[in-house]
Amino acid sequence: MSQNTPNPVDFCNVSSLLSNDERALQQRMATFVNEKIIPIAASSFDDGVFPREIITDLAKEGVFDCTGLNNVAYGLICQELERGDTGIRTFVSVQNSLVTQPIAEFGSDAQRKTWLPKLASGDAIGCFALTEEQGGSDLANMQTKAVKEGTDWVITGKKVWITNGSIADIAVVWAMTEDGGRAFLVEKNANGFMTSDIENKYSLRASVTSNLTFDGVRVSEEMMLPNMQGLAGPLKCLTNARYGIAWGAIGAAIACFEEVLTHTQKRILFGQPLAATQSIQMRLAEMSRNITTAQLLVLHLGRMKDAGT
Hints:
309 residues; three-stranded mixed sheet; 7 helices; 48% helix
């Protein structure tokens, strides 16, 4: 592609607004996705199986340890990962925004020392146990309870639609106490902690989605995140996760657009490619415009996050 030929998936050269480090990171992640994720994406989707072997490769790329990266750089990682597969981007978002972040921000020194290195290296997988069937986004309707018994807490309840649930080594479990919402770290082998996977999904098929049951699960006081009380904490975690999702959706859109563009250029009807007809060109132009608009929006949002505004 010559210097004067627009890139169809970056028609307005939004990449020129990135720093050299951000562009280099995006290019490296694009190569990783092309070589490691796209070749297995179709079979993972068809089989409805999360490719656990990709965890080691993701860890080597540093996607679980974003120390030193700004918000735009992290967004670019999410965009490229979802260009390969939405389920894999979802896995990374949960590991980072919904498990590592609450432990780092709301956890004790001992909790951070124990879990953050393992999560960053991919040696431990985490899940975020918040959503309940009767409540959905209505967190105030949470029915999972944690009751203090001596120096321990006893957790009883059920969580649904939990990404990484059955493969997680540690679950960040949100429960109502007599003092309001609190978060607890529950290890996978805890007595009374059971998981079951949701099968035959129509989307996010290469992602593990589980139901979690807590039948009188007993955890020590040391497993409660001490620096958060109420529902502002989980909402803050979700806000950060949604930031990465916004970038990821663009990656999915780019993958769809590239597929359509390739097909319409190769598909010959009435002696010419579909892409040569004005009606198809109008649709392609609209797709390109929407992608560019979204790229500019999330880039500005990332710069605002980096500036603290």
